[in-house]
Amino acid sequence: MSITVTRITLREIRLPLRESFRISSGQTTRRRILLLELFDADGFVTWSECTAAEHPNYSYETIDSAWLAISKWTAPRVLGQPIAEAADVTPILARGFRGHNMAKAAVEMGIWGLAAERAGVSLARLLGGTRDEIATGISLGIQPDPAALAARAGAALAEGYRKIKCKIEPGADIEYIAAARQELGPDAPLMADANSAYRLEDAAHLARLDEFGLMMIEQPLANDDLVRHAELQRRLRTPICLDESITGVDRAEDMLALGSGKIINIKPARVGGLGPARAIHDLCAARDVPVWCGGMLETGIGRAYNVALASLPNFVIPGDVSPSARYWERDIVIPEWTMEDGMVTVPSAQPGLGVMVDRDRVADLTVRERALTAP
Ligand code: OSB
Ligand code: MG
Question: For the CA atoms of 163, 169, 174, 176, what is the dihedral angle to 10 degrees?
């Protein structure tokens, strides 16, 4: 039976991070978060999260551009239209509509969430996920000095995290990673993420990271530069993982054809939703390329989608899917996401997202709200 979305309520909430998070392109202390509540004609309701940030530093999209794009373009395309299945949403949103993947993903994912509610199955199982728990990593922002990073990395390993990712930038790289490696020991799963802070001219400098046995270096060069990433990969022993560069399945194919990297960090929002995210997963599985699920400092709502995605079989590397308490004093979902022995449980026996939204808390945190209905 087809799904007809009758209403989408947009809300912006403000939520302070427990600790400010700095990457090479900017710092986040308090998040402005766009939530969607979706209603269908049969009385089913679910929530999704748009992960666009406040500033256009990671992506050109922002919470403000996404609010506009969803209100004006993505929501009107689905509201009031019978949709046979969630996988049909991507082509509906793609036709004559360039870019704005995060705005598209927020709606596309919400319809996956509704479809899971309607089917009475977990989102993870509806997607084809097979795991009951997923291995969890932590992403550590740029710290004031190498000793501070080493301390944070050591504490994270002791807490059970199965992958330690350190943000780097020119001036906060070799010594920082050296200190983290020294603290963690030679076998600990350690990696770096540059968020596009380098240029191909830095290849010799980046090759100094090879001696630290990193699992990978994430997105060293520009978001739209697969050609130079391929050249850089030829000069590094450390595998390159692409994040910002992979905006869809075509870019994943390009990466494989050019040799621009050996691993993909999949974030459903960056690629336009769960359908495209799964397509990239499937392509990589067929080519023996490992993938892992990235994060965008999501609340427990966005996290539910990431956890479901990461339950697919080729998510063989721990994801940036840390528990709620890593980010928030208190999350907006019940129960909060927790980690035990470095693993997060996939709520595969519960229909839909597997968490409830704390509506009172969302109401308290809301600074603007808009209901969108069929035209
Ligand atoms: O590059 O993966 C990234 C957060 C904001 C923007 C970009 C990135 C990140 C993270 C956070 O690394 C990962 C998480 O949500 O824990
Ligand atoms: Mg990244």
Answer: -60
